[in-house]
Amino acid sequence: MGIKIFQVDAFTSKPFLGNPAGVCILPKSADEAWMQNVAREMNLAETAFLFREGEEYQLRWFTPAVEVDLCGHATLASAHVLWEKGYLAPTKQARFQTRSGLLTADRKSEWIEMNFPAEEAKDSTAPPEMISALGIMPVYVGKNRFDYIIEVGSEEIVRSIQPNLPLLAATTTRGAIVTSLSSSREYDFVSRFFAPAIGIPEDPVTGSAHCCLGPYWKKRLQKNQFRAYQASARGGTLKVRVQGDRVSLGGQAVTILEGELLLSP
Fold it and tell me: Are residues 145 and 71 in the same domain?
């Protein structure tokens, strides 16, 4: 019998928008090299691998190039699959043990609400090559353990960025979050996320980046609840709430593909 694998569009209620993630349901722990090969074969920003252990799931995330420490959209996709495919009762909380500690997800009507660690940035100076690669004039630059966060003057600037990806890949540890206030009343802020250093030229919608964006805009706007839009070509909507050292990320998801891997771990 094959290993179940799914492709889910996360942070959207419509197919072919949001951020596609692979979700691989394993019977037990698998070899890292095998998981990395599957992620490379899926060729999505991240593929999640999970297996049940007691009342919780062990969860890991791989890009086509590397394993990562935190991923929002593939966690959202994993929770969606567990409920939709009957691995978990609709009223049960999804609990994931990960490299970033315990992450949880709960169903809230048509939305899924995840509880993640806040990843607050500290004031920083971006490498000149990074600013050159992005072709922008920063209003603010900060850095957390994963990424740089760069505020620019308008949503128009965020949307118009055409980065020099090879140069950007040489100047980041993981990625660069570029953000601004939204020009519409529908959203509080907008962003884009570039991570060529880990094999993701531009991530369509990035949950983990909002663990940084939430605390940043809380300070800037003096409030703790936001509706955010990631302005990639696919685009995606998130509800963000900052609660102390945790961030609540709300999103929707749609299953696109369901299949079986014929090669065992």
Answer: no
